[in-house]
Design brief:
mainly alpha; 11 helices; 0% strand; 83% helix
Length: 211
């Protein structure tokens, strides 16, 4: 793959759009932060891997052009919004309960609230039930499609690398002892923010599904 491919303005714009979307605070990143601080590095990496897998699934769908058909098929999008909205509200309830009743003591890394496989599946579900992910990837692929065939072929591998660095970075940073101490002091506030983020996203999805 030539250097010109990676220096393509369209490709760099697509990478920048994906980086901003993944690095910005949101339900996925807040969830990774919480899991890293509560259950340790491996658990957070398992969840992050699920998020990345969900993102790459939508990337593949968008790249082969199926996403346009999915968007046109309104009942499919409505179903995703309904399921995604209810799932996000359930996550909001769990985070809200933690914010209200969690002990102020430091969380234990040995807490086995979920298996690595379960965390991986939760990460996938969190991303697959977000219809915005489809639209974002349609935009990213459209940006890259203005270039050459090699440019289009580079967008998914490049974004996969960016996503891996961003989500894994959150998992690694917030599993460090210093970050866990900060999290412990602000645990209830952060879990409250997570509950609010999930709740707002869930309500918006259910509201969009009803229209």
């Amino acid at each position: 793959m030539s250097g010109n491919t990676f220096l393509s303005a369209n490709l760099l714009l697509a990478y920048a759009a994906y980086f901003v979307g993944t690095a910005s605070p949101g339900p996925s990143n807040l969830a990774i932060m919480s899991i890293a601080a509560n259950h340790g590095r491996k658990a957070a990496l398992a969840f992050a891997t699920g998020v990345i897998s969900g993102s790459m699934f939508w990337a593949t769908i968008a790249t082969v052009g199926i996403s346009a058909a999915l968007i046109a098929y309104s009942q499919f999008i409505v179903a995703i919004k309904l399921f995604g909205g209810l799932y996000l509200l359930w996550l909001a309830y769990k985070s809200g309960r933690t914010a209200l009743f969690a002990s102020v003591a430091a969380p234990e890394k040995s807490d086995r609230a979920a298996t690595f496989k379960g965390l991986y599946v939760k990460g996938i579900l969190l991303h697959l039930t977000n219809p915005k992910a489809v639209l974002v990837w349609v935009s990213i692929v459209a940006l890259a499609s203005n270039g050459s065939g090699s440019t289009r072929g580079a967008v998914i591998p490049g974004c996969a690398l960016i996503g891996t660095c961003v989500f894994s970075g959150y998992a690694l940073i917030f599993s460090m002892d210093s970050a866990r101490r900060v999290y412990t002091r602000a645990r209830r506030a952060l879990e409250g923010c997570l509950a609010a983020a999930f709740g707002i996203a869930g309500i918006k999805l259910l509201g969009g599904a009803s229209r």
